[in-house]
Amino acid sequence: MKKEDKSLVIANIASLVQEYSHFYVTDITALNSEKTSALRRRCYKDGIKLMVVKNTLLIKALDSLETDYSALYPALKGNTALMFCNTGNVPAKLIKEEGKETGIPALKAACVEECFYLGPDQLETLVHVKSKNDLIADVVALLQSPAKNVVSALQSGGQTLHGVLKTLGERE
């Protein structure tokens, strides 16, 4: 590969890392062409961009960015495929579902919600990761619950009081 081509690939990888908020480093070595095509179709359907990269070019692309990705470097051995997505747990669910029988694709590492996860043992954790928006929605729901209970109690109490007063007013 020419130096100019490598520069373009490095720039492309760096722009994808910046464009997508989450990425997974996976190993799809043992997949044949048919299974790789099926995986690509599934990724496309789920909103995941799948890209096979060379480890050295990936390291250079990550080094060119402001964020320190050096924690991921030990996982960059052998063949590497990147899965880019804007929803943190979608690639983990895909890896878990697709890898049930063969264990491929295999998780090497991930950068999700500005945290690094290394090793295939982190897959179950990644499946259950909630996005920031999901967590904010959960907190808002928890905060609204007591307020809704108070308003409901006040409204039902007002109706009861109104009924009592109406009954007393109708008596002679």
Describe what you observe in this structure.
This protein has 6 helices and 5 strands. It has helices at residues 3-19, 33-45, 55-63, 90-98, 123-127, 132-170, and strands at residues 22-27, 49-53, 80-85, 106-112, 115-118. 53% of the residues lie in helices and 16% in strands. The chain has a 5-stranded antiparallel sheet. The N and C termini lie far apart (101 Å). Helix 1 packs across helix 3 (55-63).
List the helices and strands and how they pair.
Blueprint (H helix, E strand, L loop, with lengths): L2 H17 L2 E6 L5 H13 L3 E5 L1 H9 L16 E6 L4 H9 L7 E7 L2 E4 L4 H5 L4 H39 L2
Antiparallel strand pairs: 1-3, 1-4, 2-3, 4-5
Helix pairs in contact: 1-3
Strand content: 15-25%
Low-confidence runs of at least 5 consecutive residues: none
What is the average of the pLDDT values?
Answer: 79
Q: For the largest beta sheet, what order do the strands appear in spatially?
A: 2-3-1-4-5
Per CATH, the superfamily of the largest domain is Ribosomal protein L10, N-terminal RNA-binding domain
The CATH architecture of the largest domain can be given as 2-Layer Sandwich
Count helical runs.
Answer: 6
CATH T-level topology of the largest domain: Alpha-Beta Plaits
CATH class of the largest domain reads: Alpha Beta
What is the straight-line distance between the termini?
A: 101 Å
Question: What class, by secondary structure content?
Answer: alpha+beta
Order of helices and strands: HEHEHEHEEHH
- From the spread of the alpha carbons, the general shape counts as elongated
Largest sheet: 5 strands, antiparallel
Helix content: 40-55%
The domain tally reads 2
For the CA atoms, what is the radius of gyration?
26 Å
- Count of strand segments: 5
